[in-house]
Amino acid sequence: MLSIDIGGTSIKACILSSKGDLLSEFKKLPTPKNSTPEEVIKTIKELVSSLEDTFDRISIGFPGYVKCGKVETAPNLAKNKWTNVNLAQQVSNLFNRPVRLINDADQQALGIVSGIGFEIVFTVGTGFGTALVFDGELLPILSLLIYR
After folding, report:
1. Which strand (E) or helix (H) includes residue 110?
2. Within a 13 Å sphere around the CA of 121, how many CA atoms are in the beta-carbon half?
3. How many other C-beta atoms can be found within 10 angstroms of the C-beta atom of residue 37?
4. 52 phi and psi, to 5 degrees?
5. Cβ within 8 Å of residue 10, ≥6 positions away
6. CA–CA separation, 88 vs 98, rounded Å?
7. pTM of the full predicted structure?
8. Pick from 50, 62, 89, 90: most CB atoms within 10 A?
9. H or E segment at 94?
């Protein structure tokens, strides 16, 4: 699996096994100053070109409110350019692979929680993120409150 983390200061990528083990070197490039959807996709394409083409699917963490693979907000990227952007489909078309796109804090939480009971994850980077998980299932309620 190709794992991509889009951030306010950098975009990162690596290849992971189905169990989450690192199979490639961790790569990153600066997030474009003009961080429109087009410029971010261009950066993703450049970043992924430096990795082996051994992945069968793509997972993307995005710094904003994401609903059904579409970006609704992106507070730390280009202003007013990220409303209703079907980023998952655009990246899927670029690499001809299925894509799952979720909020970056949600993605991190799913990778680190124990999966038992109620858990909350806080992330701090260019912005502040939160994720709620109950018995390993994501509860996206808090993200809605922060990004609206």
Report:
1. helix 104-112
2. 22
3. 17
4. -70, 145
5. 28, 29, 30, 31
6. 8
7. 0.85
8. 62
9. helix 87-95
Mean pLDDT rounded to a whole number for the chain: 88
Greatest Cα pair distance, the chain, in angstroms, is 41
Distance CA 99, CA 118 (A): 27
Q: List pLDDT tens digits, range 54-99.
A: 899 999 999 988 988 899 989 889 989 999 999 999 999 999 999 9
Task: Give CA separation, 98 vs 60, 95, 112, in Å.
Answer: 11, 9, 23
Q: In residues, how long is the chain? A: 148
Query: Which strands sit side by side in the sheet containing 10-15, from one edge to the other?
Result: 27-30, 10-15, 2-6, 58-62, 99-103
SS (H, E, C) 34-72: CCCHHHHHHHHHHHHHCCCCCCCCEEEEECCCEECCEEC
